[in-house]
Design brief:
CATH topology of the largest domain: Butyryl-CoA Dehydrogenase, subunit A, domain 3
Largest sheet: 4 strands, mixed
Order of helices and strands: HHHHHHEEEEEEEEHEEHHHH
Structural class: alpha+beta
Shape: globular
CATH class of the largest domain: Mainly Alpha
Number of helices: 11
Helix content: 40-55%
Strand content: 5-15%
CATH superfamily of the largest domain: Butyryl-CoA Dehydrogenase, subunit A, domain 3
Number of strands: 10
Strand order of the largest sheet: 1-4-5-8
Number of domains: 3
Radius of gyration: 21 Å
């Protein structure tokens, strides 16, 4: 499969499965059919090495696919985003058997980092790991993990087992005894991504379930998880923004004021709103492309760009989708139009860890030459 083929394949699945089911998924149905179709096509293994049967592609290709999926269904786009984030860690530190399962599309993974106690400070878990014979006991209250109760595995953080450091990462099976899901997700947006709390009480994993060194979780989070999450979540939201712009423009181009015999697009105020929406979306997409270039080239500003991109996408998301609601008027409130779904989905970006306000603090520290963490 060439670089162009992965996008062609994704667009076909989007048109046949993901987009037609977007309204149903928005009612709170996990997008299992779409994810399984992506798996059958090899796209869940997009980041997996060729040696384990994956496509061997990189972050740019993953961002392209997530943007396309997010444009059709924000919930599916976010589930795919989090799968890629977890898969990137497993590809670097996980067992070959799990890597092969991901590569062949038979394994959906996700992150379980944020916790009730540390909230958006995802790098500082309060959960514990303690020796239990030849195994390790994990106890935790995780908050709002995408694909909770649905994923085949969780990239899980805890305090170190014995080493110094802020955290250690583990691969927890999705059906491990001791896992529970105290509350189903019933929120404003991204309603189908099964984002819910996860509780571990006396959960036992083998010692070789550890991902990376004991106490090395922070370095993996910052060096691997953060770039993948920031870039891929931004790509998902850029897809949502692009879809909102396209739908709003199509609506005003076809909706007529019969007494004036002209469309809504004939009104200068409407055209100005559409222009603002398009500019904001294109600006954030340009920043995404520059962020990818910075990461790929190892530029000195790569970390700054990684911090900026999700904050920029989140702020643009709120503005662009609110304008789309305004432009489309009462029609925007109808589910079949799709605008209100994009509005609700886009607003999740500001509160998803790391939150926009937290990112502003990080960016300000970086610009002022202060330690970020």
């Amino acid at each position: 499969m060439t670089d162009s083929q992965h996008l062609q394949t994704a667009r076909s699945i989007i048109a046949e499965i993901i987009e037609p089911s977007a309204i149903e998924v928005d009612r709170g149905i996990y997008p299992r059919a779409g994810m399984e179709a992506l798996g059958r096509a090899g796209l869940l293994g997009l980041l997996s090495a060729r040696e384990v049967g994956g496509l061997g592609l990189g972050l740019r290709a993953a961002a392209e696919v997530v943007e396309q999926v997010g444009a059709a269904c924000g919930s599916t786009g976010m589930v795919l985003c989090m799968h890629y984030c977890g898969a990137a860690v497993i590809e670097q530190h996980g067992a070959r058997a799990v890597r092969e399962d991901i590569a062949r599309g038979a394994h959906i993974t996700t992150l379980a980092l944020s916790e009730v106690g540390s909230r958006s400070h995802f790098w500082a878990p309060g959960s514990t790991a303690t020796p239990a014979g030849d195994r390790v006991r994990l106890d935790a209250d995780k908050s709002w993990s995408t694909s909770a109760g649905q994923a085949d595995s969780y990239v899980w953080s805890s305090q170190p087992l014995a080493a110094s450091g802020l955290s250690t990462l583990w691969l927890v099976p999705g059906r491990a005894e001791g896992l529970s899901f105290p509350a189903a997700f019933d929120g404003l947006g991204l309603r189908g991504n099964s984002s819910a709390p996860i509780r571990a009480a006396g959960l036992l994993v083998p010692a070789d379930a550890r991902l990376g060194p004991d106490g090395g979780g922070f370095d993996i989070m910052i060096g691997n998880v953060l770039p993948h999450f920031q870039i891929l979540s931004a790509a998902c939201y850029i897809g949502i923004l692009g879809a909102a712009v396209d739908k709003a423009a199509a609506h005003v181009a076809r909706t007529r004021l019969s007494h004036l015999d002209q469309t809504l697009a004939s009104l200068p105020t409407i055209r100005a709103y559409i222009a603002r929406m398009r500019i904001k979306t294109d600006m954030v997409r340009a920043l995404l492309l520059d962020t990818l270039s910075a990461v790929e080239a190892g530029r000195p500003d790569a970390t700054l760009r990684v911090l900026e991109i999700k904050a920029a996408a989140a702020e643009a998301g709120v503005e662009v989708t609110e304008l789309a609601m305004r432009v489309c008027g009462g029609a925007a409130y109808r589910k079949e139009v799709g605008i209100e779904r994009h509005f609700r989905d886009a607003n999740a970006a500001t509160v998803m860890s790391p939150t926009t306000d937290l990112l502003y603090d990080f960016i300000g520290k970086a610009v002022c030459g202060l330690p970020v963490f």
